[in-house]
Amino acid sequence: MIYNQWYVILESKELKKQKPLRVKRFGEELSLWRDYTGNACCIADKCCHRGVSLSCGSVVNGKLECPFHGFLYDKTGRVTTIPANGKNSPVPEIMKVKSYRTFEDYGFIWIWWGDEEKINEPPFFFKELQEFSYSTFKDDWNIHYSRAIENQLDVVHLPFVHKTTIGRGNKTLVNGPVVKRENELITFYVNNIVDDGKTIPLKPDEIKDYKSLFYLQFYYPNIWQNFISDKIRVFAAFVPVDDENTVIYIRYYQKLIKIPLLKQLMNYIGKIVSVVILRQDKRVVVTQLPKKSGMKIGEHLIMGDKPIIEYRKHRQELIQNNEIPSHNAENSE
Predict the structure, then answer these.
(1) Euclidean distance between CA atoms 9 and 249, whole angstroms
(2) How many CB atoms lie within 10 A of CB 187?
(3) Structural domain spans, the chain
(4) 3-class SS at 48?
């Protein structure tokens, strides 16, 4: 994974009050809970005393209580109370576990995977989506998160993987695509057409009016949106579980209909359509080898793969520009 980044890891509604939650992210077992103010807290899910899962415990006065011997942990991962030693006894500094800074907004929980002193701003989100209503679908994929992301950057696969849905029309010839990168935002413009047997696809720099085309956006490290129209979007967060597994959150956003019951119906229908399309992708993508993407993995890419090429190059730059502590090196890609 890319170090020193904010990652979406959960939907807010999954983390209940007074109930710890165990999740695996970045190859590590994590324990999350809400403190007495409702803020999300996240620490390693392994007690520093005897190694049990802290998420099996309880929330007591906003802190996480170990189920084995009642040690209390605060959001910094520090043990604040050891019951066997008495409430007035000082707790040794060594009694602590790794903690993660959290951020919550837009119905998601992010954690900072990196060095806290490198945090300089809150996580990015497509803020215009605040004006939309949405429905969410969550899916587990047996593939590295980078492969799942690349699937949503792939404009060549549409008429084949999605021939019964969004790929109808047999538009197999790919002009460009045009890819623009601004800091950590990638925008790519799509123009697929029917192959008449005579037309040669345009190169990216030959497409002059690209801003009028259909486009999609990806923001590092793990969120994406499909700009279907001014009033309809599809959003995805690709959550890294470990080197071979990913959780994908797909949201269907719309602001066409605002009447409560009709709005809920449209959001539900939009979600079902999104599920169908995502499952078409899943059937193929989970068979890819290797399961993790990279710069040199034995693939021979073509012009239509330009968004994927740019993603890999930029991702590699971000990995190289962020120093990874040795204890996290196994998760550095």
Answers:
(1) 9
(2) 18
(3) 5-118, 127-321
(4) coil
pLDDT less than 70: residues of the chain: 326-333
- The pLDDT value given to residue 324: 77
**Placement of tokens 């989100």 in the chain:** 125
Task: Give me the numbers of helices (H) and strands (E) for the chain, helices first please.
Answer: 4, 18
Q: Which residue has the tokens 């930029």?
A: 314
CATH number of 127-321: 3.90.380.10
| pTM (global) more than 0.85 | yes
Structure tokens given for 100: 């993660």
| pLDDT for the residue numbered 316 | 96
Classify 107 as helix, strand or coil.
Answer: coil
> Two tokens at 148?
């799942």
Q: CA–CA separation, 225 vs 187, rounded Å?
A: 10
Contacts of 134 (CB under 8 A, 6+ apart): 107, 235, 251, 252, 253, 254, 267
CA-based end-to-end distance of the chain: 4
CA neighbours within 13 Å on the CB side: how many for 44? 16
Q: Strand, coil or helix: what is 246?
A: strand
Contact by Cβ (8 Å): 129, 233: yes
Sign of CA dihedral 286, 287, 288, 292: positive
Q: How far is CA 287 from CA 124, 141, 180, 210, in A?
A: 31, 11, 29, 33
Rounded CA gap, 246 and 141, in Å? 5
CATH 2.102.10.10 corresponds to the domain 5-118? yes
